[in-house]
Amino acid sequence: MASNVTFIGAGNMAGAIMAGMVQSGYPAAAITATATRDTTLQPLRDQLGINTSTDNHAAIANADVVVLSVKPQGMRKVCESLRESIQGTRPLIISVAAGLSADTLEQWLGGDLAVIRCMPNTPSLVGAGASGLFANDNVSDAQRELATQLMESVGIAAWVEEEPLIDAVTAISGSAPAYFFLMFEAMEDAGVKLGLDADTARRLAMQTALGAATMAMRSDKSPAELKRNVMSPGGTTEKAVAHLEQAGLRNALDGAMQACAQRAREMSAELGKDD
């Protein structure tokens, strides 16, 4: 029998995970979503056939897993309002909210709970996500496997064994779709300068990125080797890559990821501090 999973909050990310679960064969009858307004829930109910409720306490009464998918700024209020109910049933807690530590969430919910932090990214909305997960010491192997199953329904899932590494996950996958969108934007602009129309430049850049990522995922070769394979000595690709290296692309990416991880640490401190 499938575990009962309740999502507290039914925004885009929660909706994507629920859709992925159903499409992967997870029984819709075992999934419940909550929101403050039924108008938010009706599309999910109609499209996925899941259970919905505007009553958080009723929704988690029989839940084996509670997925916290509300905005980080509102998480404390939600957790404290659920404390008594959560302590009564003691489900696995999975948080997809950025910047809130497992200890903070556990404290707000009353303590002594199995808590998993998950950092998904927006491509989860199209089934191509990359999620990092961290489990506290109360999480069982079976609960880890269930969390993996849930997140693999919308992409890949990777576990880290130390919670601070979630900040690295934020830098390399959580925030990183924006890095590639910036690159698409820059390539489109450059293509237009070279004479292409904007639509053609955009489609070619995006398809090339998709193709390169697909090749890299399917290959047993490192990115460095794949790069060398398309660089003929004295050719166009070698010239372009040499320019990117000289322009400091590696340092720029490293700096961006360091800044992202640092901001994640700052947000964790800000959101988790006592009033």
TrEMBL record:
| Reactions that this protein is recorded to catalyse | L-proline + NAD(+) = (S)-1-pyrroline-5-carboxylate + NADH + 2 H(+); L-proline + NADP(+) = (S)-1-pyrroline-5-carboxylate + NADPH + 2 H(+)
- Domain Pyrroline-5-carboxylate reductase dimerisation: residue ranges: 163-267
Q: Which GO terms describe its cellular component?
A: cytoplasm
Alphabetically, the GO molecular function entries are: pyrroline-5-carboxylate reductase activity
**InterPro entries (alphabetical):** 6-PGluconate_DH-like_C_sf, NAD(P)-bd_dom_sf, P5C_Rdtase_cat_N, P5CR_dimer, Pyrroline-COOH_reductase
Highest taxon of the lineage: Bacteria
Keyword list (alphabetical) reads: Amino-acid biosynthesis, Cytoplasm, NADP, Oxidoreductase, Proline biosynthesis
Q: Please list the residues that bind NADP(+).
A: 8-13
Q: What is its main location?
A: cytoplasm
Tell me one Pfam family matched here: P5CR_dimer
Signal peptide (residue range) = none
Q: Where in the cell is it found?
A: Cytoplasm
Similarity annotation: Belongs to the pyrroline-5-carboxylate reductase family.
Q: By what name is this protein known?
A: Pyrroline-5-carboxylate reductase
